[in-house]
Structure formats: structure tokens, C-alpha cells
Write a structure and sequence with these properties.
Helix content is about 45%, strand content about 20%. By secondary structure, the protein is of the alpha/beta class. Strands 3-2-1-4-5-7-6 form a seven-stranded mixed beta sheet.
Length: about 220
């Protein structure tokens, strides 16, 4: 059991069940095993993985909960289509799918090696609410998702924002995990002709308190 994962969940005030914690730990074990052959995620041990990837993904849960609530209230839909774009090794999509078991998640990833890993994790952890789409983001049908979350996908520019908006339903949200404020301001200046308004939410990842972390939320 990774001590930092448990302590981090407490710090984030995420009251996860034993089953949810077990799935997160199973996910960490799968990454460490896969990392022996493929350098899937940068981390040397379970604690480092728990902090830099799992807790870093879960820090946005309270803010995503609000967005999910807003969409379900407005649309009347109980199960939303949420996506992790450029999922890579599955962060933030897999931790978020464990945090929100009643919502449906699609992990969009174009590299086959990573897709095999994602499908293995989904199968082994019995994540019934997760689908892996092994395809480039620009081949995803228009208006597929209610909310798109992504971490280290691509800096915002005109081409990327157009691509992300194309996959997103009207009234849906983009939730981008970003680091420094100055970089965010530069990226948002680049797309100001398309994105008139956005919200920047400061987040603090347990055990990474000295790292600047923000969630950028954009509504279509």
C-alpha cells in the first residue's frame, strides 16, 4: 500500500472506498510493471507515481464535480461522456474514472503501444465505465464529449483549440491541467480570437506544494 497515496487522498479530502483505493494501487502496480519495458511514465517508485501522476490527476476532482453537476442539471443527462485527450499512460483519465464511477470515460490515444497498456489496465481493474479509443484526436467524430480533460497534451494554439472544440458538445467544457501562470497567459493570448473567456483555478497537489499547478476551464 502506497503511504503517500493514502495520505494524499486524505489531504485532498477525497473519501474513497476500499475498492477505489485498491484500483488506484492496481493501476500504480501496472505502470511500474510496464515501465520496466517501456518508459511509460517518469517515476522511479510507487510513491513518486502516486504523487506526480495519481494525486496530480485527482487534485481537480472537486472542480470537475462542479462542471459535471452543471452539465447534468442543464441537460438532464445522468451519465456524461467525459474524455481524456492524448491519454498516454492514462492520466488523468484512469484516476478520474475511478473517482467518478457513474460517468463514462473515453481515453483517446493514438500510439498503439500505449493503447495496449490502457486496454490491459481497463480489463484488469474491471473499469466498466472506460473505453479506449486508439486513434488520432482529429479522427474523433464531432461533438462526442460533454467534457474533455487533459494533462500534458499540447500547448493551446489556434489549431489545437479548434480540434478540441470540434470533439466537444455545445455547452461542454475543456479542463486543462497546466503549470505556471505566465505560460498560461501566453497560451491564452495565442487563442484570444477563439476563446473570449476562461477560468484559471489554482490547485495544490499534496507533497508538491512548491509546484505551481492550475486548471484552465473553457466553455464551448
Amino acid at each position: 500500500m502506497t503511504e503517500k497515496l493514502i495520505k494524499g487522498l486524505e489531504k485532498l479530502e477525497l473519501n474513497f472506498s476500499e475498492e477505489q483505493i485498491s484500483k488506484l494501487e492496481g493501476y500504480i502496480a501496472e505502470i511500474l510493471e510496464f515501465n520496466k519495458t517501456y518508459n511509460l511514465m517518469k517515476a522511479d517508485n510507487a510513491d513518486e507515481l502516486a504523487v506526480s501522476h495519481i494525486l496530480d490527476s485527482l487534485v481537480a476532482v472537486p472542480h470537475l464535480k462542479e462542471l459535471i453537476s452543471e452539465i447534468t442539471t442543464r441537460t438532464g443527462k445522468q451519465v456524461l461522456e467525459l474524455a481524456d485527450i492524448g491519454s498516454g499512460g492514462g492520466c488523468p483519465g484512469i484516476p478520474l474514472s475511478i473517482a467518478f464511477p457513474d460517468q463514462h470515460f473515453t481515453l483517446v490515444e493514438r500510439m498503439e503501444k500505449r493503447c495496449i497498456f490502457l486496454e490491459t489496465v481497463v480489463s484488469k481493474l474491471e473499469l466498466k465505465n472506460v473505453t479506449v479509443e486508439c486513434r488520432a484526436a482529429d479522427t474523433v467524430p464531432a461533438e462526442s464529449f460533454d467534457l474533455e480533460a487533459f494533462r500534458a497534451f499540447h500547448p493551446f494554439d489556434k489549431k489545437i483549440i479548434k480540434l478540441l472544440f470540434n470533439m466537444l458538445k455545445k455547452g461542454g467544457y475543456l479542463a486543462a491541467y497546466k503549470a505556471r501562470e505566465e505560460k498560461i497567459l501566453a497560451e491564452m493570448a495565442e487563442i484570444k480570437s477563439t476563446v473570449k473567456d476562461y477560468k484559471k483555478i489554482k490547485m495544490t497537489v499534496p507533497f508538491l506544494e512548491d509546484h505551481e499547478r492550475n486548471l484552465v476551464v473553457i466553455k464551448k
